[in-house]
Amino acid sequence: MAAPDRWAAFDLLTTLVLVVRPHGAVCFANAAFEDQMRLSRRSAQRQSLFDWVLEADQLRDSLQAVHQNRVAASRFEAVLHRAPHDEPLQVQVLVSAGDAADELLVEMIEATQQTRQEREERSLDQVRSSKDLIRNLAHEIKNPLGGLRGAAQLLALELGSDSGLTEYTDVIVHEADRLQLLVDRLLAPHRHAPEVSDVNIHEVCERVRSLLLVEYPKGLTVRRDYDISLPDFRGDREQLIQAALNIAQNAAQVMQPQMDAGEEAVITFRTRVARQVTLGKQRWKLALELHIEDNGPGVPPELRDRIFLPLVSGREGGTGLGLHLAQTIVQAHQGLIDCESAAGRTSFRITLPLP
């Protein structure tokens, strides 16, 4: 349903804005409210504002106080109910008078919005800095590594196959090859130009899902919760598959003890549309969100601010490259990955702009 012209500007805001009657009936909900509450504007207009607010008494009192001109405006904190799979949303609420006598303006600002923006900017700066460092470091490692491997092979020829010392040269060659593989993985996102084509995010998810189920045929459940209205976008399909696979495989590996113990191990792919999103200081009217969630033990608190840095891993035997490479790929698509984690629920959110 189209918004009246006098309210159309509210759709440009990232804060949640409602125009309501004094008794709570919704006259208008802006695009940001639709996105956060997973509701259409038409559905919102059939409900009361009080249906979404926990402990709504303060909200009722504030609406009446502003409507009766006892106060010019009222500000307080509240918690909103959202869709069944979404966490409650903490907001700062500002109630003020609307244009008409029987209209009130309710603006809600996410309590975590500023924190999230700062985290996104910090993540972008970290990846940019580490990208240049890794590229330079990898090139510096490759040259002496090749010489080391070649020298070990020549030494093995001099020693001859009968010498008991060749096992040591074999170790040198093997370790050189292992380091070469590590360097190649570090440089992989920078070596190849993206192969841009039309990408359907659900085809990406289905490919990753099938790969996971082949690798973990027993004990792992992979669920889908798709918004099929999401359009195709331009991107490198194979790179995006790799990014999503790195995140999902990391989750499965962390949940391996749960599978071994016969406990439920679940990964969920959830897609949603987001409106009025800022990515890398650029504003986009529409974006897609891919949430990759698991019910594992969560990211250790001491690693949560560093998990996208290279060579940082909370798993024994991990290289610490999977999440870094995923972030690099997504950022090459002008997007971003962020993470929310607690024991029993970890959610990686990939946000990509839509044309």
TrEMBL record:
PANTHER family: SENSOR HISTIDINE KINASE (PTHR43065), SENSORY HISTIDINE KINASE_PHOSPHATASE NTRB (PTHR43065:SF16). Gene3D superfamilies: 1.10.287.130, Histidine kinase-like ATPase, C-terminal domain. The keyword Kinase applies. InterPro entries: HATPase_C_sf, HATPase_dom, His_kinase_dom, HisK_dim/P_dom, HisK_dim/P_sf, PAS, PAS-like_dom_sf, PAS_fold. PROSITE patterns: HIS_KIN. Keywords: ATP-binding, Hydrolase, Kinase, Nitrogen fixation, Nucleotide-binding, Phosphoprotein, Transferase, Two-component regulatory system. It comes from the Bacteria. It catalyses: ATP + protein L-histidine = ADP + protein N-phospho-L-histidine. GO terms for biological process: regulation of DNA-templated transcription. Member of the two-component regulatory system NtrB/NtrC, which controls expression of the nitrogen-regulated (ntr) genes in response to nitrogen limitation. Under conditions of nitrogen limitation, NtrB autophosphorylates and transfers the phosphoryl group to NtrC. In the presence of nitrogen, acts as a phosphatase that dephosphorylates and inactivates NtrC. Coiled coil: none annotated. Residues 136-355 form the Histidine kinase domain. The lineage of its organism: Bacteria, Pseudomonadati, Pseudomonadota, Betaproteobacteria, Burkholderiales. Its EC number is 2.7.13.3. GO terms for molecular function: ATP binding; hydrolase activity; phosphorelay sensor kinase activity. This is Sensory histidine kinase/phosphatase NtrB. The keyword Transferase applies. It comes from Inhella crocodyli.
